[in-house]
Amino acid sequence: MAEGRPRIEWMDLVKGTTVIVIVLSHAIDLMEPIAGGHPIQHAWSLLETILEPMRMCLFFMVSGMLATAAVTKPWNKVRRRTWGMAYLYVLWSAIFFAVVYIYAPLPIIDELGMFARNLAVAGNGYWYLYALIVYFVLARLTRRWPIWILLGVAVVLNLMKYPLISFYREHLAFDTGSMIVKVLINLVFFLIGLHFKEILARITQYATWPRIAALIATVIVIGVWRFNTPWSWEESFLPASLLYMVLAIMLASKLIAYQGPRRFGTVIGTQTLPIFVVQFPFLLALSQVFKNDDLGFYQNPIFLLLFPIAFTAFNAVFALWLHRITLNGVGKYLFEVPEWIAHEGKKDEARANPQAA
After folding, report:
1. Which of 60, 200, 254, 347 is deepest in the core (most CB within 10 A)?
2. How far is Cα 268 from Cα 20, in angstroms, rounded to an integer?
């Protein structure tokens, strides 16, 4: 965050943990079709269900907290959060499109048309970047409104998750894989981070290990209940997400007193963009391998136990390595926004790392 503000270490730890959980969840989903209902897969799916309410809500909460200063600035001072984020979204969507084309080539005109359509409706895993653009522009345009208006709309959208999913499937699907519903239901978490940053930070003052233990037990019970009630899987889990917000802030504020978690936040939490964007080409490539190879090996209990962990670790290490080796060359624009796009009147801001968004 190159705006002269001191880093808040517990936020780095929350963001770093969240991106690891997101990659882990995608690895579990990738493994599910080949697991054949194995008990180990069942255990992984249970863990994923327990953690599901925290994944994107914490990511967007922290993103909202980081946008509090920028949302009041003139448009020409926030190009990193608008044109810059759009650049990253289009770039990595194009990279993913190229990988898809390698594995499933179709007439190029048809492919380009589908690419453009998916780009417009957040039809790939990079919908998080798409959402950040929409949320920031919306917050910027409505900054003079009473907070409760937009926040109230966002809460209603989240609570209407199942009706929105049903409406989308019936009327808007069109084989695009659009993540528009996810964009709508996660707006509330960005707004909470944006408008209630001081309140969220104050939660750290109430962090005690008994309270943390009680919250952990509560979210586990909720997750186990959801796992065993299929009708609830597409319903809103807003209350659980709010509990996870409190839990994450309390737990992170306690853990940063220790060198290991603090180091993890410094290394991973400040480099979430590479880890997030690099995962999807790998996931696609592996899905093709799993689809075409003999499933016998992949149903081995050891493989099922270790694959989500190994994939998550490999993705993080590779992404951080790729980011490091491209820092001083043209390749840096995989993760940084070119100055001609992000120029905001100050050279040091133009060169700032976009992942702080």
Report:
1. 60
2. 9
